[in-house]
Write a structure and sequence with these properties.
disordered C terminus; about 475 residues; 18 strands; seven-stranded antiparallel sheet; Alpha-Beta Plaits
């Protein structure tokens, strides 16, 4: 269908009067980009529906006129998944916010896609429940974006990725059809589990409007330890011991390499609770039901790890304030933009046994290519997810393509994945074949073509529609 921009904008203006639509110079600056450091792009318009039906109507209007659409949430994504493309209408879900229902009997929460994650966490807590999904952008990111990227976060080792907490989903298809799949049952095996197509598809197959989330019992106690270790081999020993000794209590296992530790304690100014320096640093968290029982159990396990020679030094939480202060060290990466300036951020997955070998190889390859390169390594090692921040201190702006080529070539050499939890978007799309086979890519393209034959939803992201003449990733 040929592009009919003027008629599309006129139809949108009629359907979305006033502040529900911005065009031209009135488009807010925040909608010109996400957090991927890609150059700003001005969309034709920003439409801001406040209901699922409004989202469907906006999609229908754009589809009828052949105008592409890009869904936008909190705009905290690092891969360019919500970045505008030239000639698109940005579909901002910021007004589609709110918690519609909390069902204590079913332990579910029904939410609108534009609801910030932190709002959902607090609502669950007030109702006596727990939402395990947690990430640094919790105050800004929206649940629709979390679902669209299948976000992981800090507690995947115990609770799994976002898709593990989504029971039901409502979404607008590329032609404007609104599909109500707001299932609240844990067991529902009636045919295809359609929601799985849309979780992690980054708005390329449909736009999520509402979701039913599974809540968990609120932990009765939380214990944590920030440990210094003498080697990466001891990290693997500690992880194995934690899985065996703490079992389902183990809720997080975060590892930080010395380069990360040096930046957060030296340049960011985070306070180290440990004496001296260590070869590796581990933050582990355990959630229990009863402090009188699980607190001593945690301490006994830590003492056993000391006696086994796995831990060289450790700070043990004595309060929830201590737990938060330990997490503050791990979350200090949020300040990297301030202290390091523009940089490239990577989110990869690797076999745990090869992570330290990978870090050594990647660091060396970056230095060989750029003598002033700085790279730091940290992540959710308990679930095989490693984060990298890299830049060339000889340049004001990081050479993104050059750094990405080195990092992703190394990931391919080590048999890893180019994306563990941040999605593909625009930035990782050229490297998708490093992780997915030709047959997998072809199947993705067939699914995209079946649901979005015009290629209008988030065009150019993740995978192309064969009808556009682009079949490569």
């Amino acid at each position: 269908m040929p592009l009919d921009t003027a008629s599309c904008l006129a139809a949108l203006a009629e359907a979305f009067p006033g502040a529900a639509l911005f065009t031209g110079d009135d488009v807010p600056a925040r909608n010109l980009h996400d957090t991927s450091f890609l150059p700003a792009v001005a969309p034709l318009a920003v439409v801001r529906p406040d209901s699922p039906e409004g989202v469907a109507e906006a999609v229908r209007i754009c589809a009828e006129h052949g105008v592409p659409m890009v869904a936008q949430g909190g705009l905290t994504g690092l891969a360019g998944g919500a970045h505008p493309v030239a000639g698109c209408v940005a579909m901002s879900l910021e007004r589609l916010a709110g918690i519609e229902e909390i069902d204590p009997a079913a332990a579910t929460m029904t939410v609108r896609a534009g609801t910030p994650l932190e709002v959902i966490q607090k609502a669950a807590d007030e109702a006596g429940f727990f939402i395990p999904l947690d990430l640094g952008a919790r105050g800004s990111c929206q649940i629709g974006g979390n679902i669209g990227t299948n976000a992981g976060g800090n507690r995947v080792i115990r609770y799994g990725m976002t898709r593990e907490m989504v029971l039901g989903l409502e979404y607008a298809l590329p032609d404007g059809t609104l599909i109500d799949g707001l299932n609240k049952m844990l067991k529902n095996n009636a045919g295809y589990d359609l929601k799985q197509l849309f979780i992690g598809s980054e708005g390329t197959l449909g736009i999520v409007t509402r979701a039913v989330l599974r809540m968990h019992p609120k932990p009765g106690c939380v214990n944590a330890a920030l440990c210094g270790l003498s080697s990466y081999e001891d990290v693997l020993r500690l992880l194995a011991a934690a899985r065996r000794g703490l079992g389902p209590m183990l809720s997080a296992f975060e590892v930080m390499w010395p380069d990360y530790w040096q930046v957060v304690t030296g340049e960011v100014g985070a306070r180290s609770p440990l004496e001296g320096t260590h070869a590796m640093y581990v933050l582990l968290e355990a959630q229990g039901l009863d402090e009188d029982i699980d607190g001593p159990r945690f301490m006994s396990w830590i003492e056993g790890a000391f006696e086994a020679g796995i831990i060289a030094d450790a700070a043990i939480s004595q309060s929830l304030g201590d737990v938060q202060s330990f997490w503050d060290v791990r979350d200090a990466c949020a300040e990297f933009q301030t202290v390091l300036g523009p940089h490239c951020a990577f989110d990869i997955g690797l076999p745990q046994t090869r992570m330290n070998e990978f870090a050594d190889a990647c660091r060396a390859r970056l230095k060989e290519d750029m003598p002033e390169a700085l790279s730091v390594y940290y992540g959710h090692i308990g679930d095989g997810n490693l984060h990298i921040v890299a830049l060339d201190r000889a340049q004001a702006q990081p050479p993104m393509k050059r750094i990405s080529a080195v990092v992703y070539d190394t990931v391919r050499d080590f048999g890893g994945t180019i994306s563990a939890e941040h999605g593909i978007g625009l930035l990782k799309k050229p490297y998708l074949s490093y992780t997915r086979s030709e047959k997998e890519l072809a199947l993705m393209a067939r699914i995209k073509a079946a649901l979005d034959p015009q290629g209008l939803l988030n065009p150019g992201k993740v995978i192309d529609t064969p009808a556009t003449g682009k079949t490569d990733a």
